[in-house]
Amino acid sequence: MIKITGLRKTYKTGSIEFEALRGIDLHIKKGEFVAIIGPSGSGKSTLMNILGCLDGASSGEYLLNNNDVSMMNDKELAKIRNREIGFIFQSFNLLPRLSSLQNVELPLIYLGVPLKERTQRAEKSLSSVGLLDKKKNKPSELSGGQRQRIAIARALATNPSVVLADEPTGNLDSKTTDEIMGILKELNEGGNTIVMVTHEPEIAAQAKRVITVKDGLIVRDIYNN
Length: 225
Hints:
InterPro entries: AAA+_ATPase (IPR003593), ABC_transporter-like_ATP-bd (IPR003439), ABC_transporter-like_CS (IPR017871), MacB-like_ATP-bd (IPR017911), P-loop_NTPase (IPR027417). It comes from Anaeromicrobium sediminis. The protein is α/β, with parallel strands linked by helices. The chain has seven helices and ten strands. Strand 9 (209-214) and strand 10 (217-223) form a beta hairpin.
């Protein structure tokens, strides 16, 4: 599913260079549930941005579902991002004026899916997170946990190859966090590949594989029982 070799990322500000990633090798198979953890400034967010085709590497190779992402231009990256990747963000990133159903439909609009099929797929996605009854509600009418579940439904709507979750429980209380993690585990058991970035060890421990990033390198890669 994901194959990264010799990945490096350098940021330049004037004459100053900062190497955020210093040679990452990483393979993730279809159906895995992987947590990436590390302290602030470790490079985990940079790695997530590159995995999500939101940023490009300075050097190295990145294959996503047999597509050589490292050779793509911005237009090609946007296309593969829409087709292959579902995003879940800490801040939900829902549009406040749209209903739950309309928010879930957004990535399908970008893919050019016809209206009838779009609605059916969005409703199926909402049903998978138990919120079909909230399809007409706007984000302001929902709890934080419900908003995150809507965001998960949106991520699933395109049937992506991989779901990337960036601090998906960061804004939630402990009870709602357990709810969201339960949904992610169910999705993974249903065959979805999930890569999650978190700074919380107790959240990372719930994934099947935990990758620790420090100073731009992978320093630990363990599988949980």
